[in-house]
Amino acid sequence: MRHTITVLVENEFGVLTRVAGLFSGRGFNIESLSVAPTLDPTISRMTIVTSGDDQVLEQINKQLNKLISTIKVIDFTGQDYVEREMAMIKVTATEKTRAEVLRIADIFRAKVVDVTPRTYTIEITGAPSKLEAIIELLRPMGIKELVRSGPIVLGRGSKGWKGTE
């Protein structure tokens, strides 16, 4: 089963290593990991996507909560949340493919952020399924390079991570 977890931690040295160690020590692969400071620069938000058994993940959640630097753990499995990801895709742009690449980018509301005589670099943001769809359409034209941010999530509704409205 796929799990998306947010961990709010104190922004300090070694926290990422300790969190990743909890997963690897239990044989869980981290499929995606995104870390950045929050509005409070002393606190970082980790978004972790993994797959596996619910019982083992429950143990990981308990272990994460025991880490001194952990402020809050939220497992979004079974909850309503908004999920977004960003990708930059460098595509071959020949005379034959330029118009088609631009048309696909326009359909997906992507932006062309760099142009060279032989390539276009496209930036796209959206649900992971949207990114998968544009990648599949651009693949026949020749994707030279691809980088994805991994998903980030926020719970739906008016409450924030502090439980406030």
Automatic annotation (TrEMBL):
InterPro entries: Acetalactate_synth_ssu, Acetolactate_synth/TF_NikR_C, Acetolactate_synth_ssu_C, ACT-like_dom_sf, ACT_dom, AHAS_ACT, AHAS_small-like_ACT. SUPFAM superfamilies: ACT-like. Pathway: Amino-acid biosynthesis; L-valine biosynthesis; L-valine from pyruvate: step 1/4; Amino-acid biosynthesis; L-isoleucine biosynthesis; L-isoleucine from 2-oxobutanoate: step 1/4. PROSITE patterns: ACT. Catalyzes the conversion of 2 pyruvate molecules into acetolactate in the first common step of the biosynthetic pathway of the branched-amino acids such as leucine, isoleucine, and valine. Belongs to the acetolactate synthase small subunit family. This is Acetolactate synthase small subunit. It comes from Desulfuromonas versatilis.
